[in-house]
Design a protein that fits this description.
This protein is α/β, with parallel strands linked by helices and 340 residues long. The chain is 19% helix and 32% strand. It folds into two domains: 215 residues, Spore Coat Polysaccharide Biosynthesis Protein SpsA, Chain A (Alpha-Beta Complex); 115 residues, 3 Solenoid (UDP N-Acetylglucosamine Acyltransferase, domain 1), CATH 2.160.10. The strands form six sheets. Strands 1, 4, 5, 6, 7, 9, 10, 11, 12 and 13 form a ten-stranded mixed β-sheet that branches. A seven-stranded mixed β-sheet has the order 15-18-21-24-27-29-28. The protein is elongated and about 65 Å long.
Length: 340
């Protein structure tokens, strides 16, 4: 069985701005590794012979971050002049996909300890045209009502209306398996899996299966979701750990960290207090600052004595500062409340 994968990584990351002004969302670090790189490593471990990655926003930076192979698994890149959507991304990769017996498609901006082996076994045993990984932990209300699933675990509808009666509502967890032959009639141009393939298949009476998982899954759609995802990834299974420090980062004596992460090249000076806070690469938190539930952006210098709670802290730039709605500029910094 030839297993190949496509990692979707061409999105603009609009809701994550200004973090994605200089880094594509799939390259954002999770404990020192690009989030898409973690997915690729698990694909290699699952026996994938090759993986393709589509590129658009800051594509060169993502390609540089991921390299040409991961754990011996070669990578193929597909440049998109215009974003083609989740299904349209596969048209330029049609020959790559056709060479596989089984195709995995994964959202490159999601964080999960993906149960790829279990997902593949369920698909091969179940006989459905596609099998989607579903989160039983995520709240469907945050994702358009979620996906309707019947008592047998098969998908009956996408985007469940509030009044619609279904056995269970679940959230698509960003990974699915499909027989590449289902893509043979794919046309060139923008398209998405749900509207242009899965809903028509359901209307024709075809079976689409769901595999539920309770593993933590995070859609890194906003700065707050990103902060929470990284800290959960680092500390959920190691509650005794107080800090994580990346390569080349420095945490000085007398700094107190509680469930805080300091990425590569960042500095936390003496007397700083960090709680449930993520410090991005190259940032510096100056002596005496106190941060609670914050996300400190790339290269930011948080001044001495600052006391901040629940904020994305980024550097102001000339002209438009790139902050989210609701952000306020204080000196050379922009403070934006972390929401959702």
């Amino acid at each position: 069985m030839r297993l190949r994968a496509v990692v979707l990584a061409a999105g603009l990351g609009t809701r994550l701005r200004p973090l994605t002004g200089t880094e594509p969302k799939p390259a954002l670090p999770v404990a020192g590794v690009p989030v898409a790189g973690r997915t690729l490593a698990l694909l290699a471990r699952a026996g994938c012979e090759a993986a393709a990655v589509n590129l658009h926003h800051l594509g060169d930076r993502l390609r540089a971050a991921l390299g040409e192979s991961v754990a011996g698994m070669p990578l193929v890149y597909s440049e998109e002049a215009e974003v083609q959507g989740t299904l349209g991304a596969l048209w330029p990769l049609r020959e790559f996909c056709a060479a596989a017996d089984t195709l995995l498609v994964i959202n490159g901006d999601s964080l999960c300890r993906w149960p790829f082996g279990r997902l593949l076994r369920a698909h091969r045993r179940g006989g459905a045209v596609a099998t989607l990984l579903l989160s039983s932990r995520a709240d469907p209300a945050e994702f358009g009502g979620g996906i309707g699933v019947d008592r047998d675990g098969d998908i009956v509808t996408f985007g469940v209306a509030a009044e619609e009666a279904v056995a269970r509502r679940r959230v698509f967890a960003g990974a699915h398996v499909i027989d590449p032959r289902r893509l043979e009639k794919l046309a060139e141009g923008p398209a998405d899996f749900v509207g242009d393939l899965y809903r028509p298949l359901l209307e024709r009476g075809m079976r689409i299966a769901g595999l539920e998982t309770r593993r933590p899954w995070q859609d890194l759609g906003t700065p707050e979701r990103y902060r929470r995802a990284v800290l959960e990834f680092l500390f959920r299974r190691r509650p005794w750990r107080r800090r994580w420090t990346g390569r080349g980062a420095r945490v000085e004596l007398d700094a107190r960290l509680s469930r805080a992460a300091v990425e590569a090249g960042a500095v936390v000076e003496r007397g700083v207090r960090l709680r449930r806070t993520l410090v991005m690469p190259g940032a510096r938190v100056v002596r005496g600052a106190v941060l609670e539930s914050c996300l400190v952006g790339f290269g930011v210098r948080v001044p001495t004595g600052a006391e901040v709670t629940g904020q994305l802290i980024t550097a102001a730039t000339s002209g438009r500062d790139g902050s989210q709605d609701g952000g306020s500029r204080v000196g050379e910094l922009v403070f934006t409340p972390l929401v959702g």
